[in-house]
Amino acid sequence: MSAPKILIPFYSRTGTIQRLAEAVAEGARAVGAEVRLRRARELIGVDIMSSVPGWQESADAMNALYEAPTADDAVWADAIIFGTPTRFGAVSSELKAYIDGLGGLWAKGALNGKVGSAFAGSATPHGGNEVTSLSLYPVMAHLGLIIVPPGFADGVMFAGAGTPYGASVVSGNPPAGPTDAELAVGRFQGKRVAEIAKKLITS
User: Fold this and answer.
1) Rounded to the nearest 5°, which phi and psi values hold at 116?
2) Where are the domains of the chain?
3) Are the CB atoms for 38 and 203 separated by under 8 Å?
4) pLDDT digit string (tens) for 139-176?
5) pTM (predicted TM-score)
6) Coil, strand or helix: which one is 9?
7) Phi and psi torsions of 121, nearest 5°
8) Which of 47, 107, 145, 179 has a CA that sits 20 to 30 A from residue 56's CA?
9) What are phi and psi for residue 90, nearest 5 degrees?
C-alpha cells in the first residue's frame, strides 16, 4: 500500500510556526506518511530583518534546515498543508508568494484532487488565527484541493487549543510556545490529513 506524500510549506520568522509545522509533520509520519517540510523565503530586505534582534539569525537557521518549497514539491504531494503566521488577519506574503507561483500547475489542473489543509499562528488570542486559516480555503478551492480541516474529530480539539479550521498557536510577544495542547492539535491535523490522503490514493 502506497504511503501518502505530504508537503508542508510554511513560513516562520521566529520559529513558532516552524515548531507547529514539525508537530503536523510528526502526526503525518505517525501514520506512515512521507513528509517534505519546506520553508518559504523572505520577501523583505535585510535592513528590515536586521532591525529586530534575532529575526535574521532565526531565518538563517531555518533556511539551513529546510529547502524552499517548489512547484515540483506540490506535484509530488498527495496532500498540501499550508502553515503561516497571521499578517493582519491574512496569510503571510512569503507563503502567498509560493502559492502564487503555482499558477502554472493550476492552469493544467495538476493539483486537482489532492488534499489541502492549513494552520496558523498569532501573537494574541484574538489575533486572527481562524480567519487566517479560512483565508486559505478559497485558495485551496481554486487549486482544486479537497479541503480537510481538523474539525472536532478528536478529543485534543476540546482542550482549548487550535481551531476546527486548522491547528493554531497563540505565541505571545515576545513569542513563546507552542504549548503542549497546541502541538497535540498540530499532530492530530497531520495525522487526519495523511489518513484522508491515504484513503484517496488507494480508493
Assistant:
1) -130, 145
2) 5-202
3) no
4) 999 999 999 999 999 999 998 788 999 999 999 888 88
5) 0.96
6) strand
7) -150, 150
8) 179
9) -140, 170
